[in-house]
């Protein structure tokens, strides 16, 4: 798991900020694309999330989301700044931003404006909402999209607490960022086949709703509905981590043969299956809450490590519940090299997650560390045949 040079011939002008667009371009940078991140004088706001190691505007989340990129600071109200952007676009394959339509029009960077500079540009617009509905043009943040897409309604279905709640991760931003990444690659493929410019719109609400409803449209997908929304297994209150003698773990027998083996062989408690609630596969399916209660009864007698060894021998899928602070010590992630300790030129030692996808083609490459604000301004201006303060 490492960065590759598969996209080393792709140049991207990136005016996106926070998580949505930067997660897309970080993914493309991991595959070798040359990303020039165009920032205002104060930098992308997300630079200041998390305390910096040593330097202002080098916050923890910036270290993760903006690796592999070069940073330039250009004042788009100045003649030099505007010319620099035009020249950068002229030599770029992709222009990506998350500026609202009215503001991008004032900057002279609409699709038509940019296509006039680079006739075969892939123009990726990271939006909050698609352009055809009443929300078009509104500002959007992860919290708002979690609410509108129905994400905040999921936890109440599991625990009975009626209060809507966020999932504690920027799921809308990151899901939309991945949609933007594959859309960019598809548009580049079309451009290469036809020579045409491609305007790509990636709306957060639609992306997140699409992602959520893959399983959670469930039986309401039919017209008329044949049942409720939400894949019931995912919102089943009894389908939760279970406690052992020293921690928590997940058991996922999944099919009925494994459930039977769990009671008969692992717990040595075949009598549990004589209970009228568990004496055939349909009853076991419909009485899952009771069956999980009986599983919990046995699990507290041994440690997590003991149960993992026993369940592996019985071919019953199981895993420990890692705390997020324990991930660097997970044996699989550690041995696979997923986490790598690196030295930043100014910020010192830090941990970097590796690109999770492997390719048999291409060559591994070193990603550049997250840049300081405007670190590459002079370098990129020189490449564009310009000089001065933009």
Write the layout of secondary structure elements.
Elements: E1 11-15, H1 20-30, E2 34-39, H2 60-65, E3 69-73, H3 79-90, E4 94-97, H4 101-106, H5 111-117, E5 122-127, H6 142-149, H7 154-159, H8 171-194, E6 198-203, H9 204-216, E7 242-243, E8 248-251, H10 256-266, H11 281-286, H12 288-299, H13 304-313, E9 318-320, H14 331-335, E10 339-344, E11 348-353, H15 377-383
Parallel strand pairs: 1-2, 1-4, 2-3, 4-5, 5-6
Antiparallel strand pairs: 7-8, 8-9, 10-11
What's the overall average pLDDT, rounded? 95
CATH architecture of the largest domain: 3-Layer(aba) Sandwich
The top-level CATH class of the largest domain is: Alpha Beta
* CATH homologous superfamily classification of the largest domain: Crotonobetainyl-coa:carnitine coa-transferase, domain 1
How would you summarize this macromolecular structure in one to three sentences?
The protein is an alpha/beta fold. It contains 15 helices and 11 strands. Helix content is 37%, strand content 14%.
């Amino acid at each position: 798991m490492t960065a590759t040079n598969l996209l080393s011939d792709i140049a991207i002008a990136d005016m996106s900020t926070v998580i949505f667009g930067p997660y897309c371009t970080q993914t493309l940078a991991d595959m070798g694309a040359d990303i020039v991140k165009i920032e205002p004088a104060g930098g992308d706001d997300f630079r200041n999330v998390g305390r910096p190691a040593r330097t202002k505007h080098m916050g923890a989340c910036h270290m993760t989301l903006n690796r592999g990129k070069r940073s330039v600071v250009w004042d788009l109200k100045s003649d030099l700044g505007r010319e620099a952007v035009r020249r950068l676009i002229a030599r770029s394959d992709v222009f990506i931003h998350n500026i609202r339509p009215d503001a991008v029009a004032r900057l002279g960077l609409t699709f038509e404006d940019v296509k006039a500079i680079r006739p075969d540009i892939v123009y990726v617009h990271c939006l909050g909402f698609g352009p055809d509905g009443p929300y078009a043009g509104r500002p959007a943040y992860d919290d708002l999209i979690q609410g509108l897409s129905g994400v905040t309604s999921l936890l109440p279905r599991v625990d009975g607490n009626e209060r809507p709640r966020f999932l504690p991760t920027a799921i809308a931003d990151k899901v939309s960022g991945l949609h933007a990444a594959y859309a960019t690659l598809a548009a580049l493929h079309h451009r290469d086949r036809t020579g045409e410019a491609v305007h790509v719109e990636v709306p957060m609400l639609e992306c997140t709703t699409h992602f959520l409803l893959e399983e959670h449209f469930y039986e309401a997908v039919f017209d008329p509905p044949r049942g409720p929304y939400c894949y019931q297994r995912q919102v089943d209150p009894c389908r939760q981590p279970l406690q052992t003698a020293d921690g928590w773990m997940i058991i996922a027998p999944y099919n009925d043969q494994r459930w039977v083996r769990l009671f008969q062989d692992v717990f040595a408690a075949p009598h549990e299956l004589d209970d009228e609630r568990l004496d055939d596969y349909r009853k076991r399916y419909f009485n899952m809450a009771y069956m999980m209660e009986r599983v919990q009864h046995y699990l507290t007698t041994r440690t997590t490590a003991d149960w993992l060894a026993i369940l592996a021998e019985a071919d019953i899928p199981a895993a420990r519940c890692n705390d997020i602070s324990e991930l660097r010590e997970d044996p699989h992630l550690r041995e696979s090299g997923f986490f790598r300790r690196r030295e930043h030129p100014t910020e010192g030692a830090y941990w970097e997650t590796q690109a999770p996808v492997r390719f048999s083609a291409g060559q591994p490459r070193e990603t550049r560390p997250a840049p300081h604000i405007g670190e590459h301004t002079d370098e990129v201006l020189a490449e564009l045949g310009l000089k001065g303060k933009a």
